[in-house]
Amino acid sequence: MNDQSLARAAVLRPPAAGPNPVLRLSGIGKSFPGVRALQDVELALYPGQVTALIGENGAGKSTLVKILTGIYQPDAGRIELDGAPVRFPTALSATQAGVTAIHQETVLFDDLTVVENIFLGHQPRNRFGLLDWGRMTREAKAILDRIGARIDPHVTLRELGIASKHLVAIARALSVEARVVVMDEPTAALSQTEIEELYELVDRLKADGKAILFISHKFDEIFRIADRYTVFRDGQMVEAGLIADVTEDHLVERMVGRSVDTIFPKRHAAIGPEVLAVEGYSHPTEFEDISFTLRRGEILGFYGLVGAGRSEFMQALFGVTKPSRGTVRIGRQAVAIRSPAEAIGHGIVYVPEDRGKQGAIRPLPIVQNVTLPSLGRTSRKGFLRMAEEFALARRYTERLDLRASALDQPVGNLSGGNQQKVVIAKWLATQPRVIILDEPTKGIDVGSKAAVHEFMSELAAEGLSVIMVSSEIPEILGMSDRVIVMREGRLAAEFPREGLTPEMLVRAAAGYGRAA
Amino acid sequence: MSTFLKSREAMLALALVALVALVESRFRGFAAPGNLAAVFNDTSVLMILALGQMLVIMTKCIDLSVAANLALTGMTVALVNAAAPGVPVVALIALAVGLGLLLGAFNGLLVWLLDIPPIVVTLGTLTIYRGVVFVISGGEWINSFEMSPAFTALPRMVILGLPVLSWIALLVVLLVAVLVRLTPLGRAILAVGGNAHAAVYTGISVGFTRFMAFVISGGLAGLCGYLWVSRYAVAYTDVAVGFELDVVAACVIGGVSIAGGIGTVGGAVLGALFLGVIKNALPVAGISPFWQLAISGAAIIVAVALNARAERTKGRIILKSAEHAA
Amino acid sequence: MSLAEGTRPRHIPDRLSGRMGHALRSWELLLLLVGVAIFVANSLLSPYFLSPWNLSDATFNFTEKAMIAFAVAMLIIAGEIDLSVAAIIALASTLMGLALQHGAGTPVLVGVGLLTGLLCGLVNGTLVTRLGLPSIVATIGTMSLYRGISYIVLGDEAFNGYPASFALFGQGYAWWVISWELVIFAVLAVAFGVLLHRTNFGRQVYVIGNNDTAAAFSGVRVQRVKMILFLLTGLMSGVAAVCLTSRLGSTRPSIAQGWELEIVTMVVLGGVSILGGSGSILGVVLAALVMGMVTFGLGLLNVPGIVMSVFIGALLIGVIAIPRLIRLARTGRAA
Amino acid sequence: QDDPVRIALVVKSLGNGFFEAANRGAEEAAAELGNVEIIYTGPTSTTAEGQIEVINSLIAQGVDAIAISANDPDAVVPALQKAMQRGITVISWDSGVAPEGRQMHLSPSSNELIGQTIIKLAADQLPEGGQVAVLSATSTSTNQNIWIEEMNKVMGDYPNIEVVATVYGDDLADKSYRETQGLIQTYPDLDAIIAPTSVGIVAAAQAVADAGKIGQINVTGLGLPSEMAGAVESGASKSFAIWNPVDLGYATTMIAYHLAQGDATAEPGAAIPMGRIGTATLDDNNEAAMAVPFTYDASNIEEFKSVF
Ligand SMILES: Nc1ncnc2c1ncn2[C@@H]1O[C@H](COP(=O)(O)OP(=O)(O)OP(=O)(O)O)[C@@H](O)[C@H]1O
Ligand SMILES: Nc1ncnc2c1ncn2[C@@H]1O[C@H](COP(=O)(O)OP(=O)(O)OP(=O)(O)O)[C@@H](O)[C@H]1O
Ligand SMILES: [Mg+2]
Ligand SMILES: [Mg+2]
Residue A199 and residue A193: Cα distance in Å, rounded? Predict the structure, then answer.
């Protein structure tokens, strides 16, 4: 309560001798079925200043970005541009009003060229009202030069890697005459040099008098470029102010709402014999020469920058894609895994990163999702037995403390964290030996996250081996017994738990320090 | 990719030339300019419809009602012409196109506003439109002697060595090429089919774009309604029955991806010509007409198989060493 | 938060609402009502409608199509489609005719029909699951190919003179007015209902149709399931070919022309989502009955077939559009 | 007032000018007989399955007689047999049904006469001889095949005339047009096209006119005066023949009526009255021919083009 009003006052107070805000949001609320993503949110952006928006996963940051850019309509509240109320019914109207964004997910067109991706929706026209490709190409080159991206504007996007795609998204945001530029985790997929170039770009935009909203989980960069900050927690704004007035610890405290140590309750478990050994796994384009071992009761962390190829490697290990080379041993026995069904047969299961596409079958009930890979056990001679299915589903969902009104509810109606629990329950129900969790807490709320983490340690203690792919350093540091770092499809480093620092992980992932 | 797309069309063009050469090698005169022009003329209607269908398919929809639309507009203008021979042909063409647009808009609205899957919508309107033909004509034929001379003369009038029908087809090819390449709508059509989710982020209305594709396809079908009826100088309920599948086939052979987002005007034109050449060559080559169906079926399968091979999604390129090799 | 509460798991009920509530809002009920309405209307409009023999004759309007529709429904639920089914009938019938010319008896004829269906299904399945072609275009291609082969074999000829014992399937009666075809239809309806709704296989079909990537990630052998569905569809086309050939007593390459669209219409009218993932066999059965009754009822009034198809086209769009229109009018915006 | 005698006229497909004309004849007969109701019906496209559905609904209605022009002589047999079992009089006309599926068949003309007429029409314009081609309807239609057979039997009488090809237009205007183009292309010296089908002959005449071959290629065969008036005028067709479909519908109705009323029986040698047309005499197959085909040319086309 008090926090709220304090924060509100901070937003509304103009900076010392500063100008009026270009853009001001007040009382913004937005709900999705089962989730209240934003509630009574205030935000002000000032010309020539960078405002950092911070908050945990699922705090509602991206939702706010989508409201600002006309993709979602707020349920409540108002948006003012230069003091005048505005509405953004479509993405185009926001662009035309001078609000542009680099979205968190790259939302671009794989089959169109770079030029086209940059200008689609607001292409320059010639005097006959037809598209002016010459001008588009010239301008595209100019913008790409400006952000230091060495990308041929005529190639199709499919041919680019994730970092280049991200640069194209940035170029797209800069292709309109914008007054407000929103950047939702723009550095997440970039390498260090590209990040430096982006910082310079932000400085130039500031100098041009643009108002910038910068969303990031990395505190070093927030302190490097932001002038102001706003903290979200669970869809509400909890604090705003000047960066100069605060410390990192204070921001973290405000963000999470309690002390950080309690999040990762990794318990020590006895680490047993080797259960999985991978030797020389390679793929023509995705990864090369991956070798490691995993022991009983161990949690093995896989760290890397986004796009390092961890997910791809895990999927190959799970039999989704075919490796070109390499062997797998389970226990002492060499096995060939050619399909997920075989992997499951060998006791290896994979909780995918892309929950919506690869994990949950959203329109189907919880019970059918959970029992899918275990149908062989719940059925008799190929015929379904509903009672057995419900029993199995209940056993595992209750253990994970799933919040649902009934087991025959469609999974799609659940909140993200609960969907993730269903997916995890699905795999635990197969009683695996090795579980691969790919970004297990991505996009799920604080509470569920803690529950997932607690459960992971419990499983490890029971003798299950866990591979945890994560891009969150605290999660990696908190949960892993051992950490492997991947970079550009290769193993970059391997660290034991003791003495591991965020520094070491970042260096290995970005390719500066050469460890192990 | 773009060079690759070009090579796919080049491949198709090559196949077409090879086919013509094959027929010519056994039957002198097939490749004579005059005959090729005749084949082109004969394929005009298919080509126009294929271009409209291409736009629809590129938005990840399908329009199965084009042939029924053609029949209905054709019958309507024939009836008007028979009842009032004084109405100028230009007005009738406008009527045909206008009615076609309307029928296309009906499909488009159901897809846009009610979000009914396009295949269901056009499956329904396919039967409805053709039923209406039967109802308005009472099942009767409109024969050439009931049509005014101007009505039937236009498509076969020769200008600069080519019949007007061919010129109309060429004009449509040009217009659709301009639409796709040089207008925001054209690019929106490609974008919507390529990634509807991302299209929303770029401020493109997915529903409206699909609606427009249906409208254009309907308008072109309406135009073909007039062309067909005047060219064959007869209108009846079963005009062009089943032709929608030929139209889809022409698109598919031309490399238009049924999954949306991929397709070129050149491809669709070549696809239509490919079918046109086969249809015209069989009687000339003295191959029993009973073979025609099987041959075009096999051609469709081979064409999609080739396209599918080309389109197959490869893994992401992460390894630096693989980046340049790809 | 959950950490604190996590120690005491809370109970989650199996089912939220009773099944009744669900059933009352279902598509099947809507169809049933439509069916009853048509039945009543038919009885009022035509004095000939309510006669056992006439109703029995009317069943031939839909039985063969419905047999195929069951399999096509499963295929569509799994997110694929087969437009070559009518062409498979033509090819199967043609090959049965060839076998007949070589002196085959009834059992061999039936075997040839079913095998041809399976083989065609295998070809379709291979194109889709092995070569990765989109099923809609692959089967447009095989549709021309299969029927084309019939034309090559038969040209302007026809096969006839099928043995009397062969007539059983399409012309025989099991008991009183119950034809063997109706019996086959009923048995297949039950078999498909059990297969789709009561077995692991059926569950996998739904899963694939809702999200085939997640299905694959869950260990479902997606391509194998799809292949089986294509085989099943081919087989059902073979069964329908046997029935139809037996009923007509002759084979021409134009046999069953245009059935593919009628079958798809039947499936969609039955509430199967053309986008895959939902639908039931009961719905398809009801849709078959509704379509059969509409055509028969209008036939009794001597309404031309094309006007009947307008009616069915309107029914198809109407039953989907009207609920959405109402919702649109109520909320003032699209779904 | 008695219930009317209900006679169903089942045609190959609705929306065909020829059958519409036959229906007019049937109505004329009905008016003449009094207390007769004509049910004019048929499938939308020319398929046997469609006709069977129609037959089933006619059986259900308990009509008194079914007179059918069949799309397939064999496929409709079981359904028609069922009709006969239920006491319905079944005859075929125009395009016949296998003997076991009907009581009698009325040909518009005898097949021999038609076969002889179509070749004679072409030959009369070619005193020096020449090349002719045949454009037929669908490959499966019974009568076209028989007529072509009959035509071939008398080819010996025309030693200078060579039949170079037979192609199929499937009774579709566009396909017939394209097939004709193919003929023109393949046989530069072609002198005549015989199209024993009313759809094909119109399309062929159009294609010949479009190719600028009027005067070189004469299109002839069987056609309807209303549809062929333009072609005769332009010279693309010098002459063509057809029996009178109005008469055919009339005669069919008369026969169906008499058989249904029990006034006559269909057996070899029987003579069944056909009103103003005369009497049909059944041969050993219970078949009868109505009349000789009538030839239309520039001299009489004006008179008939508005009749049918
Ligand atoms: N389209 C949607 N439908 C349902 N729920 C949604 C939708 N979009 C977001 N949410 C939910 O709204 C909440 C806020 O999500 P949002 O993406 O804004 O978080 P965020 O702060 O951007 O998190 P992150 O740091 O992971 O990007 C989450 O609980 C999310 O699951
Ligand atoms: N080249 C690319 N093109 C488009 N999207 C990409 C690309 N690379 C990654 N993404 C998207 O970015 C998100 C994160 O990608 P990815 O799975 O590669 O990240 P990660 O899990 O952090 O890294 P890793 O590859 O090591 O698993 C996903 O939504 C993915 O679809
Ligand atoms: Mg976000
Ligand atoms: Mg990943």
Answer: 10
Please answer whether residues C144 and C87 qualify as being in contact, where contact means their C-beta atoms are separated by less than 8 angstroms. yes
State mean pLDDT over A129-138. Answer: 92
Asked if A109's CB is within 8 angstroms of B1's CB, the reply is no
Predicted local confidence at residue B3, as pLDDT: 54
The model's confidence at residue B1, banded by pLDDT at 50, 70 and 90, is very low
Residue D119 has pLDDT above 60, yes or no: yes
CA dihedral A253, A259, A263, A264 (to 10 degrees): 120
Put simply, whether the predicted model's pTM sits higher than 0.90 gets the answer: no
Instruction: Show me where the domains of chain C are located.
Output: 56-327
Q: Which of residues 197-216 of B touch A (CB under 8 A)?
A: 197-198, 200-205
| Ligand 1 lined by A355 (C-beta under 6 Å) | no
Question: What are the domain boundaries of chain B?
Answer: 2-325
Q: Mutate which of C45, C93, C154, C250 to test chain D, going by most D C-beta atoms within 10 A?
A: C250
Let me know: does C209 contact C77? Beta carbons within 8 Å. Answer: yes
Q: Report CB contact under 8 Å: B234, D45.
A: no
CATH 1.20.120 assigned to B2-325 = no
Which ligand is nearest the CA of A416, by number? 1
Local structure of residue C127 (DSSP, 8 states): I
Do C169 and C246 contact (CB within 8 A), yes or no?
yes
Query: What's the Cα-to-Cα distance from C5 to each of A404, A448, B150, C12, C278, rounded to whole Å?
Result: 15, 12, 86, 15, 37
Domain ranges of chain A: 2-98+178-256, 111-176, 270-347+432-516, 356-431
Helix residue spans in D211-271 (DSSP H): 225-234, 245-260
What is the atom index within ligand 1 of the atom nearest the CA of A442?
26
Taking the C-alpha atoms of residue C98 and residue C118, their distance in angstroms, rounded to an integer, is 17
Give the other-Cβ count within 10 Å of A472's Cβ.
16
Is residue A515 over pLDDT 50? no
Contact status, residue B260 vs residue B194, Cβ threshold 8 Å: yes
Give the torsion sign (CA, D173, D176, D180, D182).
Answer: positive
Cα–Cα distance, C321 to D1 (Å, whole number) = 49
Q: Do D15 and B139 touch (CB under 8 A)?
A: yes
Residue type (1 letter), D299: S
Q: CATH assignment of A2-98+178-256? A: 3.40.50.300
Whether the predicted pLDDT of A265 surpasses 90: no
Of A39-43, A303-307, A309-313, B317-321, least confident by mean pLDDT is: B317-321
Q: Same topology for domains A2-98+178-256 and A270-347+432-516, yes or no?
A: yes
Chains A and D touch (3+ CB pairs under 8 A): no
Give the Cα separation of C85 and C142 in Å (integer). Answer: 9
Produce one character per residue of A488-499: b if its CB has 16 or more CB atoms within 10 Å, e if not: bbbbbbebebee
Give C37's contacts (C-beta < 8 A, 6+ positions apart): none
Instruction: Quickly name the fold that domain A270-347+432-516 has.
Output: Rossmann fold (3.40.50)
| pLDDT tens-digit series, residues C95-124 | 999 999 999 899 999 999 999 999 999 999
Domain C56-327, CATH: 1.10.3470
- The protein residues having their C-beta less than 5 angstroms from ligand 4 (an ion) are A 311, 353
Q: Does C256 touch chain D (CB under 8 A)?
A: yes
Residues of chain C in contact with residue A367, where contact means CB-CB under 8 angstroms, are 14
- Percent of chain A at pLDDT > 70 equals 90
Counts for chain D of helices (H) and strands (E), in that order: 10, 14
- Chain B residue set in contact with D, beta carbons under 8 Å: 27, 29-30, 35, 38, 42, 134, 137, 139-141, 143-145, 156, 228, 232-234, 236-241, 279-280, 282-284, 286, 289-290
- State both tokens at A342: 């075989």
